[in-house]
Amino acid sequence: MQNGQLLAAIDLGSNSFRLEIGVLEHGHIRRVEYLKETVRQGNGLDADRMLSQDAMERGWECLARFSERLSGFGPSHVRAVATQTLREAKNREAFLTPAEKLFGFPIDVISGREEARLIYSGVANLLPQSEEKRLVIDIGGRSTELILGQGFKPQTMESYRVGSVKWSMKYFADGLFTPSAFEWAEVAAKAVLDEAIALYPKNCWDVAYGSSGTIGAVADVLQAAGWPSEVITREGLDWLKEKLIKAGRVEALRLEGFKEDRKPVIGGGLAVLCALFDLMQINSMHAAEGALRHGVLYDLLQREENTDLRSTMVTALGNRFAVDALQAERVQKTAVSLFKSIVDKSSFEPQYAARLEKKLSWAAHLLEIGTRISHSDFHKHGAYILDNADLPGFSMSELHRLSQLILGHRGKLKKLEVELRNSDFVIQLLSLRLAAILCHARRDPDLKGISLKAVEGSTTEFTIQCKKTWLQQWPQSAHLLREECIAWQKTTWKLELIEINGKTI
Asked: Pick from 426, 487, 480: which is nearest to 450 by CA?
């Protein structure tokens, strides 16, 4: 990626949506513009984990405004990530489908551990290089992330379902600040966070850093009141809690440095922060400049520079499940060859086609991870593993796409009725299924006498064209290809096996 390239990251948080635009300068990203809107989408999640219409509309309106600012940005230079509220929401697709149309870019719902990884990356990249062992904490609207790391490498990452919006709604619902409300809120937070004591012991880190949201707001108020700049102490937290209790309610809160949009959620956020100071035995915490959105920007940079963490994680997962590396490479090369025979002659934008090809390659490499559990229905086991894996670098939607490719690479196609509405997915799946057939004997297939083509003038028809000599030489493969054509006849897509002389088989 060249110097001067603009990159954009969007964080769809439970409390706020944030847009960070940066420019690449010699390996570092300098801020060009930062926009933040208090959307409070987390407030719109009910007890049944359904997102309200009002909450969705607030999000859509914000994304429409962000979209206007991103006019002219290419898809590989923008990434939007959504966190705990949309992780939880059962009806998230009802929000995401219109949101992506309004916004103009995909929105990735990321897992809690992936959020933690990106937060650490954002913090580390904006700190001076150091060998210090770091504890990084981010208290969001509905989740809190804790990360242990050193340098640019996170080592222990967890996400807990406790946050400023969620705790404010539950323990400060009427906007009242009382000693008993803080006591109950802190006890409840400790009950959720208790297990962190074993994962993040005091002797495993040198310096504690706090990222974004609650911690930034607390640091600003303490600094305005004369406490040390960008440092939070236990004494400072006690002082602030007393100020809130003395004010009695949100409307009466008058403190220099407090932004109005932060006041309704400060009770819950402060209670969680106090609980963490107690549990983790923190004496002081530094407010960090880096946050999730900065981690997303640096992740975009790595993907463009062929240091994509996702490829590393695919290899690691394959090794963990003892995948036959030679067979995986064989299927991958065959699938990519078939995929290119369609895409190279289509109207696909090259960068977009390259991204589809990369994901197809990952699916091919992970095709047999389910065999470690059972050889019977291994494609179902493999799909389950990916749908439930915490794989750094991947969004939940990316992992689901891979799981559906693996699930669908063999057997009936009816199980993929929804996915088959997506033409990009169909081309990937068709390439993968045919590659698995051609490599069924676990040897390099003969691709000289066979080709896959899209039917000219049609968007739903494909042909497998074979030389007669190829069909005679590989009768088992020919039989499986005929069966494959029959399988596609039961869908809205069509696949035909044709001899080079034009005869349909």
From this structure: 480
Q: What is the 3-state secondary structure (H, E, C) of 210-256?
A: EECHHHHHHHHHHHHCCCCCCEEEHHHHHHHHHHHHHHCEHHHCCCC
User: 369-402 pLDDT, tens per residue?
Assistant: 999 999 889 999 999 999 999 899 999 999 999 9
Residue 92 reports pLDDT greater than 90:
yes
Burial 47-58 (b: 16+ CB within 10 A, else e): eeebbeeebbeb
DSSP string, 156-184: EEEEES--HHHHHHHHSTTSB--HHHHHH
Q: Which domains does the chain possess?
A: 6-109 (3.30.420.40), 127-288 (3.30.420.150), 308-445 (1.10.3210.10)
Residues 434, 426 contacting (CB under 8 angstroms): no
| 105 alpha carbon, distance to own chain's centre | 14
The predicted-structure confidence for 115-153, as pLDDT tens digits, reads as follows 999 999 999 999 998 999 999 999 999 999 999 999 999
As given in the structure block, the two tokens for residue 457 are 């003038």
Mean pLDDT of the chain: 94
What the block records as the tokens of 407 is 């699930």
